Amino acid sequence: MTRLADYFVVVGYDHDKERSGSGSGKIIHRFPEKDWDDVPFHQGLELFCQPGGWDLSSQRTQPSFFVSVLTDIEADRHYCACLTFHETVSMTPKKPDDVETEEEGGLVHHTLMFAPKSIALISRLDYFETFRNCLGIIYTVYIESMNVQLESIIGNLLGSVHIPPPGGPQVRFSVGAGDRQSLQPPLNGAIPVSRNTVAMLFQQLGIHNVLCLFCAALTDNKILFHSSSYSRLTDASTALLAILFPLKYSYVYIPVLPNALMEVLSTPTPFIMGVHSSNKSEIQELLDVVVADLDSGYLSIPEHLNLPMLPDHIYNRAHQELTLVLSPDLQNADCAFPPPTPSPSLQPMLDKEIRAIFMRLFAELFMGYRSCLTIIRIHPEPVITFHKGLFLFERGLSGDDFLQKVLGGMSFQTFVQERGPPFRICDMFDEISANIQETLLQEGRKAERIIKNVQDIARHLFINENPNPQPYSQKIPKPCDGAFTRIHIPTFPRIDCVRVQEVIDDGVKKASMKAQLQTIRQPKSQFVPYGPPAGNITAQRNIINNNARRLEVLRTCVNSIFENKILDARKTFPAVLRSLKSRVVRNALTRELSTHAHQNRAMLESQQFDLIVRLMNCALQEDACSEEHAVATALLPLTASFCRKLCTGVIQFAYTCVQDHPVWASMQFWQATFYSDVEKNIRALYLPPDELKADKPDLNEAFTASPDVVRRTQGLLYDKSALEIAAEQIRIWPAQSEEERNEMISNEESTVFSQAIHYANRMVYMRVPLDISKGIKNVFSHEGESGSSNISQSIGGSDSLDGESGFEEGDSSDPAGSVIRFISKFVDKVCSEGGVTAEHQKSLHQMIPGVVAMHIETLEAVNKESKRLPPIKKPKILKPALLPGEELVLAGLRGYLLPDGREEGTGGNLGGPQLLPAEGAVFLTTYRVVFKGTPCDIQACEQVVIRSFPITALTKEKKVSISNTPHIEQYLSEAVQLRACTFQLMRIAFDEEVNQEKIEHFRKTVNRYRYPPSVFSMFAFNGVTTTNTMLQTHKQKDKTATLRKFASRTFLRGSSRKPGLKNKQMSRKGQKYVLPGEPLAVPRRATLPKPPLQDLTDSRPNSLYEEDDITTVDESEIEIQTSTLKASDTLSADKLMDRPYVQDYQRLGLGSPGSTRQKSTEPFRISEVNLHYNVCRSYPALVVVPSTVADESIRKSLGKCHRQSRFPAITWRHPRTKALLLRCSGFHGKGVMGMMKSQVVQNTSTGTSTETTRSIEQEKYFQSIVANTPVGSHHNTDSLVSLNSVLTPTSEATGSPPQGSESPRKVGGGSSAIYRAMTGIRGSGGKGMNSFRGLTKWGSLRTTPSSGPPSTLNTDVGARLAHKTGGQQPEGGQDAKDGAVMPTSAHKAALYVFGEKSQMKAIKTENFPKCDFIPCDFNEVRHVKASFKKLMRACVSSAPLTDPEVSFHKLVEDTEWLLQIQNIMQLAGAAVDLMDIQGSSVMISMEDGSDFTSQVVALTQVLLDPYYRTIDGFRVLVEKEWLAFGHKFTHRCNHTAAHQGSGFAPIFLQFLDAVHQVVNQFPLSFEFNQYFLKFIAYHYCSARFRNFFFDSECERFEYGTLFEDSRTKSGKIGERGDGTSKGIQIKSLWDYIDSIHLKTPLFYNFLYAPSIRDCVLRPYSDIANLRIWDYYINEDLRTGSTYDREVVTKATEPNEENEEGPLLPTDRRIINGCYDNIQEAQLDMFRWLLEEMSHLETDLCHFPMKWKFVWEKLESPMELQSTRTTAASEMVKQHGTSLHKKTTIEILTKGKEGSKSQTQPHHFETHSYVTPTYCDYCQHLLWGLVKQGYKGMKCSECGYNCHDKCQNLVPKQCGKVKISRESSFRQSQTSMEDVIRVTPQSTPMISGGQTTPTYYDHSWQSAQVSETRTHEGYLWKRGALLKGWKQRWFVLDSTKHQLRYYESKEDTHCKGFIDLSEIESLQLSAVALPGAPKKAEEKAFFDLKTIRRVYNFLADSKDHADEWINKIQECL
Fold this sequence. Notes:
With 2012 residues, the chain is an alpha+beta fold. Helix content is 37%, strand content 13%. The protein is built from 62 helices and 45 strands. A 7-stranded antiparallel beta sheet has the order 25-24-23-22-28-27-26, with helices on one face. Strands 42-41-40-39-45-44-43 form a 7-stranded antiparallel beta sheet, covered by helices on one side. A 5-stranded antiparallel beta sheet has the order 3-2-6-5-4. Strand 8 (171-173) and strand 9 (181-183) form a beta hairpin. The N and C termini lie far apart (105 Å).
């Protein structure tokens, strides 16, 4: 019997502690005053009586009731039922009125206030309604002044009312106030009582939110409820605990948290709490708490919180069942004739039905848990553990996070302790859990059966709460309505404590006497039902059958080993290693080994021992990821069985060779294995020996059985299982005598102790290493990649992951101590749980150090003798072939080259031998990282595998973890992964002989050689003698390699020159100066030139402002002394005349150097303004400019208008249209410092004059370009197609620069027209759209009005320029109004300037007549870097792709690499059209003019000029546009440590890729082949040659490499066929290419047709036409890199003794695509014939002729007749040209119209397709035999068709805004006469010689190109399968032999077609067909029968039908 209430408390407002309007409570009365012996009183109760705080109120409030929960130190919950009411309080000021100061926020006290007072009951029972009634009676007696003593009521309540335990009878009582009450205990106290709280919780939050809360509580997350009702908080918390049954919540539980304890919410432990909604603002700061709003039904889960959810199948089942219960009408909602809907259950029964569903959920979740229980003690109390890993594996949920966390939580541990014993009191859950599998199978997801079973459980739950069905009428006195509003309410009376105590004592006496007379029947214990097993035996047997062949191979191999048939065993050994990936095979191996161990075959020979150990290691490694540890458990005794004899008295056991696996360091493994063995011994202890079966299980059956089956059936081989024996022993325990009990306890304790000793010895064996001096290996690396260090950011050591070692690692120098601590911790754990006595534990601890010491002594002899064994014969290390000058840095480190994500070499789907993994060694040279070895696979071990890449190409190096790899005999835990930008990946796992120090030394050395301190330390400069001064000079230039360093250096220097401060005079000694700009004299010293003071410009990258301080250079910093690098004595124009780019200028007719040498008629000249790199350090010394532009103008003004002073320079001129191609950097925008400095300059007339001069000179330069462009003087009629039609009508009027006395511009406020427009704008990138944000902000810094006199230059500069150039007004111009600015000209301009959007939009084009500024997108360097990283990961993946949704092409698409290539090709194509068709000049003005600008300008020249498509011409192009114009190769390729953090940027590689795309489309137009481009792509970042070093021509001159040429008189090169001479290192890539090209046609394209090379190329740039360059995905494992020809020659040349002649046609050789280079091994016919001729000449003793000479002597078999073209081919060419123009028009239009046309979306509408239609995005069918009438999405504007799922993926821009392909074709399509008149010079797209291979390649892309509309018109067509009639537009095409039909005449997408070749008959119909349209003529029907179906048509009339029949028959 238990008291109903333990304490009664009266808590009131504490007036003594009131401070600033906030008060506190105090306990006025508590009864009993003395604590009960069994229940202490809770302190701090006043906080929970008023959770919101003790505050006075100015209004009357009605009484409130709620229940709080208190938790004592024993974690027992006590319920505090609190009823609160208010009493009237008279408030008087505490200070005089004239002194009182009211604090801010304080409460204003009225004369009458209301103070809260609470009466509370504290109880251990949760009878909330009874508490409400009792407190209500006390309040009623008080408020109604009833004639009843409160002392009697309180005393009776505390002393007289006692409640029987669960299962007891109903209690009826009265507290003495005329009341009658009853109380019914539940039948089972273990099952929680929920009343209707669970149903209320679902009503508040919904199904999904409650399930989320449920999962959060099970996975130990923090949960917080908030509501405006305290009762709702308690009910919600109670409901959550109720649905957690049978688990018990073990963490902090506070349903109502007082405001004063809000800091408790920051506790790190899980909790379930509730707070009032008034605290919303405070709980919003909680970042790891799941918050549930009970009032609004909203659940908030933090974003970073990964909340594990139930397994999908369990979640779906629970959601379905809850829906059936809560919404029973939902399943019949759509029925036409719904059955009678069952009425929903009442609230109490609905509550129980929901709880029943959750009980079923737990039963399914824990199904089979009893089969994974391990009993280790039976007496005196059962001790049971749970095998978590076994349960997860057998349930197939090893990777489920939710179940992992649930099984590891405290609640489940309590669950195992309470429900683990096999003989105990059972409840409903035990029965449900035992039958859940059968129940679910019987239900079969049928709603009726599910509801029935749920309701059965719900009825039991309802009866458990309400066991007495008889109603009892209670009588509870209540106060009158509105009693609390009475004016005169007495205060709560003081209670007589003595009287209350007397009543309590009297009641306690009577209750004790009554309890002695009553006897309550206690529930009996019973056997707990075992339930279903955790696994599925049938499924496991199926797996065994599938692995039968593998098991047979395993048995054969193992038998061969033990029979000492080593050769036979090795044949099948690789197959056995591969099969060990299967768990069934691994466990079969353990059983087979156990069988042979029992047959006394444990002593093995050395080779047998090695093979057995290797099998063990492989099985353990494959089983490492499983938490079950079945293989380790089975192998543990075998490791101490198998051994070999080393010498007399020294035996080596297998455990010394398998110690490195992490499983031996897992405490979880040792405990689970120990408990399993203890259970077996405990079972044997109580099982009589005669009951054991004499016969052991059949070995064959044991071999083939899976481990979990054997584990479960081991017990079934005997009569009883361990749990059954334990249950029987527990049952008979009370009947045993004391002696028998003590004997049982002693035997069990001895069993556990003996096993502890046994396992302590085993742990010593497995943990003490063979070589104690090396310490214990830390092999935990399960977390994936460890120790990764991106060397582009930092070179750091690897941080090894601290895995679960099970103990705190001590000093690594004391391995013995570490082992002792590990074993001691294990012993403490298992002995404490197993009940081992303290004496035994002490003796065991004393024994462990001695055992460890003895074992170490034993292992010393074993280790000593094992080293004397002959080492395992390993393959010989093969040394790689080295290049001339290449030296080894690190000798070969033995290791394995592991396979990566590429299938080549792995023998996978691509076939071929399994070349990887390969065993060999990795070498580090001064040039490369090379791996050379042989495959581990015995079938391919005769091959040699080589993989290499240049050391400078390395982009990332890191450590990675590896899994077991077939064919590798060693256990390898980690590897080093090296990734190179040459698209190579090395995953190298080092051999065990390579220690950790060597590995770290290798990594550090690789990083050191990857990022040397200077470029002179790289391989290309091998042999160059450098001094410290030279290195310091180079380091000085690298100081500003990053923006941060540059900014810090610049701002610090600029800060010393603030206004008002005078610069200190520098002393003469060590004075810094600026060198004069005179010709440089450099005998043996190169002096860095600097411009004069007035000409100095900022030439550094990413300049923050325009005008910089004078950069001074110390004499000691610019001296370069060298013995090998020799610059010219004087840098002059004559010296530069031999430069390739200067010779190219002369070839193009762009003038001659110098202003005095030029002819008066030449429009251009080669200027020497930058001869000493004074104007721009990154520009070449000689540049082409218009003749009318003076050098002084460029030096003083023009250069300052562009970033880094890269002013517009002419690079190419069209030979026919005379259009010019110019390049420059983006227009210079002022930075912050530049604008601040300009304030001082603008206050003087000199500053104004300088700014105005810049504007004039810039406009003059543009006008010179326009004047030298023929289209600028006379417009041609041939222009871009539809350009005027695309632009808006308002922009079609032509305009001229405004003229007149008033200028629309204010000259005095800016520098130049473009410069002023860009004030405050920083052009950061091509896609930045927010460039104008700083205009207003910074504009105020530079627009301060000048205080000087007004400028006299007040006339329009455009008018002055027009006057100076002859005063001619452009055509079409008109006089401007006063100050009016004409709109931008929309007709073709003479000069198009492509620039950044952020700058082009703000330019005032009226100041630049006949110029058009086109904003466009470009690829920013950061985007290129990111795309390249993704491309490398896609093309050279580190692991195979396992996700079927992620394919190789999907990964390439995600990189956006091809989109960037497309952007380059489109912009270059636009320049081609503008220059070739329209005759306009083009200027590319992007970023700093060295990256994207170089790509576009160079590709444009390739497309326009056939010279650049030759080998020599391409070299000139690279020298001119990339080297001379200052592409930053050193910076972009990260050559030195100073550039390490910038990241590799493949700008030049993108250009080569774009050229590769053009070569693919035009194979006849290029002299070089694809290998030539790959060769350059490889060597531009290989650092073998000196061409691609330094960032500008200026730097190359400074370091003496500018005039370096290896073809000088130093001697002959190229004596060998590979183009090299022995011992001579070629310095130039071009010399290397020439030498190879001289000997072999390796780079030559035999399809090259030089007679037609004068055409202009217009390639397609659609993504569908772009190809992934095979340079990214191909490799050659036979020779390594094929781009170092010396290495290839040495690797492929035959041995001297077996040297053979050339391959004859009859010779045969096996070539594998994954190993050989197909191009090298299988020559094309041209190369084979040339080599054959050379061999024949050699055999005839003739001097062999050069191949080039032989090739040029050949006569063409027939003259190429390019003029003989058909009309169709001309239409194809014309159409291709029109498509190319269309792209150009789109670029111009997009730039002119800005973002309007770019952002207009599609207008998709749902559309029903009744004819075959394809999705325009995914090209899959929208309509078909299955998808008839399918509804897709169609754009109402452009007719775009797509699936619903594809709608969000289609291009965002609507095709209507663009020019559709169809309309573009129609607008560009001309008559046949016009086509014939087209000449190859005007619009040639491709040459005539490549008509056949190229036309068909492009013609398929447009269905309109080759179609012939023989006949067309509307017809009615009858649909298939009884569909209706639809009117369609039919087109009869005699060319394609099709009858196509469209939805309408305007529709451009064909809905379907009928192949005319399938027509069998065509005739008029005899009768009218049903369903035809009204008013249809009967004779207008005709039928068309094909081999597939019969088509019915209806024409407008009979004549129309006859016409269609005739036309179709003509085509037949």
